[in-house]
Amino acid sequence: MAGATPASKQKYVPISGTYPKGFLASGIHVGVKPTNTQFPDLALLVSETPCSGAAVFTKNKFQAAPVTVSRRVLERRSGEGIRAIVVNAGCANAVTGKGGLDDASAMVRAVDTCFNNPGVTPSTTPSESSPDPSTSLVMSTGVIGQRLPISKILSAIPTAHSTLSSTHNHWLQAARAICTTDTFPKLLSRTFTLPSSPGTTYSLAGMTKGAGMIHPNMATLLGMLFTDAPIPAKTLQPLLTHAVDRSFNAISVDGDTSTNDTLAFLANGAAGGKPIVSLASEDGKALIEIVALFAQQLSQLVIRDGEGATKFVRVRVVNSPSFADAQKIASTIARSPLVKTALYGKDANWGRILCAVGYTDGLSSGAVVPEKTSVSFVPTDGSKALKLLVSGEPEVVDEKRAGKILDEEDLEILVDLGGGEGGGGKEEASYWFCDFSHVSN
Question: What is this structure's pTM?
Answer without folding.
Answer: 0.87
